[in-house]
């Protein structure tokens, strides 16, 4: 485990997480959540949890982003906070 | 002072999981939009998964796939050489279940939107109070 | 509400920080979690089950009850989405759109007398979505050539999950994502032509049935539920290889269930339960 890489990706994870709940556009929130999931997947690959990283890459970054986008497509992009 | 610094450096992964958990919990409690709440719920779930995976990490160990020859012969296996696989197993199923619950949560949000034509919690509550 | 939320979050955070101070340091090989149960799995699983990937061995053999009910939870989530969203009416009343296959012209067709639907001959016209009709040649062709390889990779991940990272959950999600990609790159109708609504639901139930059926087969052969050594009577290779083969059966069940459920939930979400047009 390379701790410099680990720290860099941990910082990116926190930034993406804060961005996903702060951005005033639900489509942007969905895409930032996808980026957050992918960073999380990289983090688990670094920690040696290859199976968990594989699942997160296909589920979190792939399918759940599609679910969010299709839900936003049928409702609205606007949000007050 | 030196003790606190060592504590922070020694457990840096745990501090990040606490930060993510607080972000997720704040989104669930304080955000007004239903989809934002669902994003917060997912961040909370991944924070718990990060915590479990961090428990299993061992310094100087490799991924939990055991080295072996083609016919299945292998050297003596020492547990300290492989990362703890048990948290990985528990969290693997949790991730897939989290996407299934995400689907149900989004469906409920869509049904709410169809009924009230808004995703904001305060406007929904106002419509319920004044029919 | 914001201030109350911040107070609660600060309280929870301070409790967590207080608890973390007593934790062993990160990545400590001597931490209690790494000394108690997992060494047994790491040292014995290759000899007992002939599966080098410890995660797969624990997931599908030692803790297979856990996995079986997780699969049931996924199936239940698919059923919940279906029951909440699916509506019997196929489309709202109003004009529909058709594209002429040869010339690419789009026609807007109103309902006839008494609200009767008018259909153009499907050999010459294809129905298109009324809201959003992407017709991007490059995206359609590239996705059409990518999808078979994605599906092949999904099958590889399921079948090779014993020796490399992977298994039923990942392979099932990849297989489902291939169908979702078809739906996103073309439209929902094309995906429904390849995999009908009933197929997704049946796959979802069939996967849980394969999992539970493997367990019941072991029970019928005189062993405990989900004790794959019983399969040695049916499959070659003795009781240790039978455990490996039993895991493969169970992983196939998990993969089929996850693929069906992902596609099922996506189609319900994307078309609001109408199954005609959508994302």
| Cα shape of chain B | elongated
| Main beta-sheet strand count, sense and barrel state of chain A | none
Which class best fits the helix and strand makeup of chain A? Answer: mainly alpha
The helix/strand order of chain A is HHH
Total strand segments of chain B: 0
What's the CATH architecture of chain B? Orthogonal Bundle
Percent in helix of chain A: over 70%
Please give the most extensive interface between any two protein chains, plus how many residues each contributes.
B-C, 57 and 63 residues
How confident overall, as mean pLDDT of chain B? Answer: 87
Write up what this structure looks like.
The complex is a heterotrimer of chains A (81), B (131) and C (279). Chain A is an all-alpha fold and 81 residues long. Chain A contains three helices and no strands. Chain A has one domain (3-74). Chain A has helices at residues 3-22, 26-47, 50-74. The radius of gyration of chain A is 14 Å and the shape is flat. Chain A starts with a helix and ends in a 7-residue tail after the last helix. Chain B has 131 residues and is mainly α. Chain B is built from five helices and no strands. Chain B is elongated, with a radius of gyration of 22 Å. The N and C termini of chain B lie far apart (60 Å). The model of chain B has no long low-confidence stretch (mean pLDDT 87). Chain C has 279 residues and is mainly alpha-helical. Chain C folds into two domains: 49-92 and 134-271, no CATH class; 96-129, no CATH class. Helices cover 62% and strands 5% of the residues of chain C. Chain C is built from ten helices and three strands. Chain C has helices at 2-21, 32-35, 38-49, 54-62, 64-85, 137-159, 168-185, 188-194, 197-220, 238-271; strands at residues 96-100, 106-109, 125-128. A three-stranded antiparallel β-sheet of chain C has the order 2-1-3, with no helix packed on it. In chain C, strand 1 (96-100) and strand 2 (106-109) form a beta hairpin. In chain C, helix 3 crosses helix 4 (54-62) and helix 4 (54-62) packs across helix 5. The longest helix of chain C is centred in the C-terminal third of the chain and has 34 residues, at 238-271. Chain C is globular. Chains B and C meet through helix 2, helix 3 and helix 4 of B and helix 1, helix 3, helix 4, helix 5 and helix 10 of C.
